[in-house]
């Protein structure tokens, strides 16, 4: 079984975060800095605070917050107390920040926004993963992510127990209706059939990547059982079943098992929490949902100051 790249916390994810940090800091400080902290907090003051969960959920963003703190002010010390991927309860301490009080106050919202957003994605993902427990289906994200945050949000999906679909257009071939409409098919036709498009994609990958082409995924979208039956002999790695009802998905699984059992089936389109269990019970291998990232609500965290 071929698989898309599955993201962990890596130098590439860290680099994406470091690229957006100047914008995030500029939003808070502009050209004048933190007027309130500078006016009221002595430059020499030191402080410490715990990062505390105000809601239960799945934690993500500890490595991101640690990286952001180090880049913002190396005098601040960020100590992780709970790891990404952990289930947390309301009131749990997840980290501690200590150092110059002004810097700590200036970094507060940046840290809480990072942890809150990524934990929200991880928490929503876990609800989908739990909803399909006991079936063969795996939950995948999509490219419906916040611009600039894609790898961060996909990392959070992994923290929640989900799987990553392709990170970008560079990673795999995914043939959709629009590609077929603009493609030039065989024998003078003005568009490819799905099977022709799969064959053309394989030829292109062979020419461009040579021996490495076999590692790349070719996926094709269909919206009917007729299209599925037509494309299966071309042996794509994955067939995406677009907006099919559970009964139609079960028929698709049956036909796949009869004609090309090595091809994986992915259900997508209109997937939400109320329907995902029925989709999974159809027997598909993969379920992809943009909701994991575009509909996630940030988890609430706060700073509790330590006395002394």
Structure keywords:
alpha/beta; elongated; 42% helix; 308 residues; 4-stranded antiparallel beta sheet; 12 strands
Quick take:
This protein is an alpha/beta fold and 308 residues long. The protein has helices at residues 11-29, 35-40, 62-72, 101-131, 150-159, 177-182, 194-209, 225-231, 246-259, 276-280, 291-294; strands spanning 46-53, 57-58, 77-80, 87-88, 93-100, 138-140, 173-175, 218-222, 238-242, 264-268, 286-288, 301-305.
Q: Would you kindly provide a written description of the structure presented here, covering whatever features stand out?
A:
This protein is of the alpha/beta class. Helix content is 42%, strand content 17%. The strands form three sheets. A six-stranded parallel sheet has the order 6-11-10-9-8-7. The protein has a four-stranded antiparallel sheet with strand order 3-5-1-12, with helices on one face. A two-stranded antiparallel sheet has the order 2-4. Helix 4 packs across helix 5. The protein is elongated and about 75 Å long. 38% of the residues are buried.
Overall spatial form: elongated
Q: Looking across the biggest beta sheet, what order are the strands in?
A: 6-11-10-9-8-7
The tally of strands reads 12
Helix content: 40-55%
- Terminal CA distance: 57 Å
Annotation field: number of helices: 11
Radius of gyration: 23 Å
Class from helix and strand fractions: alpha/beta
Biggest β-sheet: count, sense, barrel?
6 strands, parallel
Low-confidence stretches: none
Q: Kindly state the mean pLDDT as a whole number?
A: 96
- Percent of residues in β-strands: 15-25%
Following the backbone from N to C, one meets helices and strands in this order, namely HHEEHEEEHEHEHHEHEHEHEHE
